[in-house]
Amino acid sequence: MTNENSYLPITLRLDDGQALVVGGGMVAANKTRLLLSRCPQIIVVARELGAEMMHWHQQGRIQWRNDEITEEFLTRNLPSMRLVFAATDDRTLNREVARIARSFNIPICVVDDPEPSTFITPAIIERTPVQIAISTGGAAPVLARRLRGQIEALLPEGLGRLAKFMRARRGWIRERADNVMARKRIWEDFVDGPGMEAALAGDDTIAENYLGAAVEKSSLKGEVWLVGAGPGDPDLLTLAALRLMQNADSVLYDQLIPETIMERVRRDAERVFVGKKRSHHTLPQDEINAELIRRAQAGERVLRLKGGDPFIFGRGGEEMEALVDAGIHVRVVPGITAASGCGAAFGIPLTHRDCAQTCLFLTGHARADGTLDLHWPSLARKGQTLAIYMGLNPLKELCHKLQINGLPPDWPAAIIEHGTRSDQKLHVGTLASLPELVETRKISSPALTIVGQVVEHRRHINNDK
Ligand SMILES: C[S@@+](CC[C@H](N)C(=O)[O-])C[C@H]1O[C@@H](n2cnc3c(N)ncnc32)[C@H](O)[C@@H]1O
């Protein structure tokens, strides 16, 4: 049995090998068409050929063998093949071809039968030499084709021309920049700027001018991007965050960044975890700062990826200060902060004309002695919402202090656990009941507490994960 993750998309070189297609009908023709421009020797074995196959045969583009498809034939011919398609209308025969191909470790695709196959063909978008392959791992070929249509519509016609322009100038760039990272920068600058548009339009002279300018301005100057990754749902990343995630040389991240977001970081960017280590201590802030500075000074474009917004309880301010003081160029990209994400996830508005004209973001992070250093009279007020970050441990004290400073015990409150993630949960209570909920429901971090009448204005909305 295959699972949804058992397929690795690769592009297979066929210009120096031969391929075998078993079958001569329409289904076989569809697979043969994929091979025509890629493989110089296509052997089709079938008793009869359909019209299209016959046409290719007459043009000399395929070799037709009308042999009997026997075990002896397959055993003799399969070992020299780069790949095989079994595309007859006889399922048993197709599976027999697969069995023998597998015994020689030759890649085999049985059309419409993923089980005996060792590869499947994706839906392909062609802008030669650019190819985009879309696969659903055999789960839903129709979906792959629908996606192909949608992506096709987004891609500029001149994409192939652009790729050819870039291919033709790789040597020229190599002579001018001997360092891999510098070359990567030059190309990134080029494709992010007007040079790319010129090459797409076929205006090679103008494109070359821009490429020359990118070479001149190229230097291995590092920088740091302080980027907010939002509360966890990758759909809540900003476009700027996604772009920088795709361009970074390295990424420093912590435990608030879920794997589903890390998957969107460029695959070859170095990943450095600076969150909780086995000792359960985060890397000290000055060590993180020093690491960011060291990397930027070595010329890296460093992505400092932070949960939520970097400037809201994220120590982004301290990192920015240290970097700027060290002369490093810094860019800050805001993210959706946990309060906004959690409120939206469960239909809890943070302000409301009827009951909350103010919304305070506060941290329930306790001091070393376990007490909270907060101005209670200004927090324990009606007409406002409190969004409390990092407050699970001291929640008992927090709820108690809000009550002794004037809020009633039945004042509405809620905890949002793992907000915006697939396992998010809402726990609704009051100031009096909330601490017990944490215990009985074993609520875990990250969790955000919202206190105020806005909790009663929540509505069930369709944000289910
Ligand atoms: C160090 S603070 C970082 C806040 C972050 N910079 C932001 O803007 O959301 C960590 C706290 O944010 C809250 N938080 C972050 N992500 C959350 C999520 N997905 N669900 C609930 N609370 C979250 C929790 O209170 C957590 O303890």
From TrEMBL:
It catalyses: precorrin-2 + NAD(+) = sirohydrochlorin + NADH + 2 H(+). GO terms for molecular function: NAD binding; precorrin-2 dehydrogenase activity; sirohydrochlorin ferrochelatase activity; uroporphyrin-III C-methyltransferase activity. Pfam families: CysG_dimeriser, NAD_binding_7, Sirohm_synth_M, TP_methylase. Pathway: Porphyrin-containing compound metabolism; siroheme biosynthesis; precorrin-2 from uroporphyrinogen III: step 1/1; Porphyrin-containing compound metabolism; siroheme biosynthesis; sirohydrochlorin from precorrin-2: step 1/1; Cofactor biosynthesis; adenosylcobalamin biosynthesis; precorrin-2 from uroporphyrinogen III: step 1/1. Coiled coil: none annotated. One of its GO terms (biological process) is methylation. InterPro entries: 4pyrrol_Mease, 4pyrrol_Methylase_sf, 4pyrrole_Mease_sub1, 4pyrrole_Mease_sub2, CobA/CysG_C, NAD(P)-bd_dom_sf, Siro_Cobalamin_biosynth, Sirohaem_synt_dimer_dom_sf. Keywords: Cobalamin biosynthesis, Lyase, Methyltransferase, Multifunctional enzyme, NAD, Oxidoreductase, Porphyrin biosynthesis, S-adenosyl-L-methionine, Transferase. Belongs to the precorrin methyltransferase family. This is Sirohydrochlorin ferrochelatase. It comes from Kozakia baliensis.
